[in-house]
Amino acid sequence: MRLIKNTKGQIRVIEAFFAAVLLLSSLTIIPMTQKVPSYPNEETDVLSSVAYRTLVSLDAEGEIGELVANRNWSAIKTLLQSCLSPVLWFNVTIFDQNFACLNDQLICSGGLISDRIYAADYVCTRTNATYAVYVMRLQLATVN
Question: Which residue of 34, 43, 51, 103 has the lowest C-beta tally within 10 Å?
Answer without folding.
Answer: 34
